[in-house]
């Protein structure tokens, strides 16, 4: 199984790219959203990948985050959702948008993707709702994952200004941390995921997501 590719982007096509790794070129199909985020030809690129194996077909699909890759795998498990429809959904909503739509049972958001009808969209949210919390917890990007494997540079004393602190986690990483914090407080995975999904309309950083989600989880009355 090919789970990740790191190499040079050779060229782009309408729905796929060619990545050169160790002298071998891999054709990788991607969503419109991933395509827009990729660098130009000749530049370094890294993608998580999922390999589709059929009797007469081998296809690689590429993703910038583990969360996006896992949503692709889950979407493909739903009857009526093939690789093309899955990439259409992810291209239209992004991994976080898919998580929000599934957690909130928003079939209309799923059906906004090209080629996905209302009944199929309803099937997606119905079958995947219980799986949303675990996927939403997969925060971070490929760049962040790779940073964890880079050796720390030698520390050299210098009069140069110190770099500014790293910004607070945003997007998938913040969503993951907020979800973890809420479950540690005793909230169930499903209700925590729904609250974080709703809170995403108000905040993007971890602290903001937690505060907004707690307001939604607070007893009414």
UniProtKB/TrEMBL annotation:
One of its GO terms (biological process) is DNA repair. Homotetramer. Forms an RuvA(8)-RuvB(12)-Holliday junction (HJ) complex. HJ DNA is sandwiched between 2 RuvA tetramers; dsDNA enters through RuvA and exits via RuvB. An RuvB hexamer assembles on each DNA strand where it exits the tetramer. Each RuvB hexamer is contacted by two RuvA subunits (via domain III) on 2 adjacent RuvB subunits; this complex drives branch migration. In the full resolvosome a probable DNA-RuvA(4)-RuvB(12)-RuvC(2) complex forms which resolves the HJ. It holds the Pfam family RuvA_N. Residues 1-64 are annotated as: Domain I. Residues 73-92, 108-127 form the Helix-hairpin-helix DNA-binding motif class domain. GO terms for molecular function: ATP binding; four-way junction DNA binding; four-way junction helicase activity. Keywords: Cytoplasm, DNA damage, DNA recombination, DNA repair, DNA-binding. Residues 65-142 are annotated as: Domain II. Residues 156-221 are annotated as: Domain III. InterPro entries: DNA_helicase_Holl-junc_RuvA_I, Hlx-hairpin-Hlx_DNA-bd_motif, NA-bd_OB-fold, RuvA, RuvA_2-like, RuvA_C, RuvA_C_sf. One of its GO terms (cellular component) is Holliday junction helicase complex. Has three domains with a flexible linker between the domains II and III and assumes an 'L' shape. Domain III is highly mobile and contacts RuvB. SUPFAM superfamilies: DNA helicase RuvA subunit, C-terminal domain, Nucleic acid-binding proteins, RuvA domain 2-like. Residues 152-175 are annotated as: Disordered. Residues 143-155 are annotated as: Flexible linker. Its main location: cytoplasm. Belongs to the RuvA family. This is Holliday junction branch migration complex subunit RuvA. The RuvA-RuvB-RuvC complex processes Holliday junction (HJ) DNA during genetic recombination and DNA repair, while the RuvA-RuvB complex plays an important role in the rescue of blocked DNA replication forks via replication fork reversal (RFR). RuvA specifically binds to HJ cruciform DNA, conferring on it an open structure. The RuvB hexamer acts as an ATP-dependent pump, pulling dsDNA into and through the RuvAB complex. HJ branch migration allows RuvC to scan DNA until it finds its consensus sequence, where it cleaves and resolves the cruciform DNA. The keyword Cell membrane does not apply. It comes from Histidinibacterium aquaticum. It is found in: Cytoplasm.
